Amino acid sequence: MKDFRNVHQSDPRFIHLAQQQLKLSDDAQIIEDSLYSLAKRVVQIQSFVTREVGAMEEEMKRSSESIKDRNLAKTGTHQQLAMTSMNNLALMLSDVQQQMQQAMMAGQESGRGKKKGKGKGKGQGKTPGALGQMQQQLNSQMQQLQKSGQSGKALSESLARLAAQQEMLRNAMKELTPSAGQPGGTEGGGKLGNLGKLMEQTETDLVNKRLTEQTMMRQKEILTRLLQAENAANERDLDEKREANRAKELPARIPPSLQKFQDRQKQQTETLRQNLPALTPYYKKQVDAYFKTLGY
């Protein structure tokens, strides 16, 4: 780009620079194929990669056409737009790598926790709560960007990175709860219904460089509904645990051998009471007290 700014159309170097631009377009094909292959395996970034790679390829093609027409102004514009898509892809891949590393560390910590307490934390990390934490971090980044006063290229790169993160969260939510984001979805007691549509509106705002108060209010609603879904899931799990651990009243069962012994003992006691010898009132009172202690 810098070389094209300093070269004249009649300069012999112009042909050499044009050939370099064509070589860059050819070499980019390898990168494009690799990114498309990655996007197929990681569905959360599929639409972002498709959009940005397509834009990069198109702008590089247009820059080559502008070079053929010796239109340096258009050449620089298309090269700059191609660079923007390249930077957006680089930032997205960096964030994905960082999140994957954090997820691996969290998985290792969760595994150690399960060994210490078996049966606890089953399914942890695959709940609306995990998404809620990531959404909260994203909202904080958006607030910081809104107050930072960034502009130009730096602002565009930051907004593109945030849009990619929101898209990844939306796709992760759709995987976790297939009905979320679909019209009439009722997953999570209705807490996640149409939530994907709100996230998609935020992505559109960020791609179009709109970071308004309306956008931030929408982000608060998204976070609130994710937290509500987490609370509903926690209450459901707690109810299931209570129901599973509730004591059941079972009728007392006496072994047959003990029952026979008790019946025989009762019969012997009744026979003894009926055949008591003549006793003085004092001893008769003592005998009655004795039988009462036996439960007769």
* Main sheet overview: none
Count of runs of 4 or more consecutive helical residues: 10
Number of strands: 0
- Write down the Rg: 38 Å
Give the helix level as a range of percent.
Answer: over 70%
How far the N terminus sits from the C terminus, by CA atoms, comes to: 109 Å
Strand residue percentage: under 5%
Describe this structure in words.
The structure is a single chain. The chain has 296 residues and is mainly alpha-helical. The chain is 76% helix and 0% strand. Helix 3 (46-68) packs antiparallel against helix 4, helix 4 crosses helix 6 (152-176) and helix 6 (152-176) packs antiparallel against helix 7. The longest helix is centred in the N-terminal third of the chain and has 45 residues, at 72-116.
Spell out the blueprint of helices and strands.
Layout (H helix, E strand, L loop, with lengths): L1 H4 L7 H29 L4 H23 L3 H45 L11 H21 L3 H25 L18 H13 L5 H33 L10 H19 L6 H13 L3
Helix pairs in contact: 2-3, 3-4, 4-6, 5-6, 5-8, 6-7, 7-8
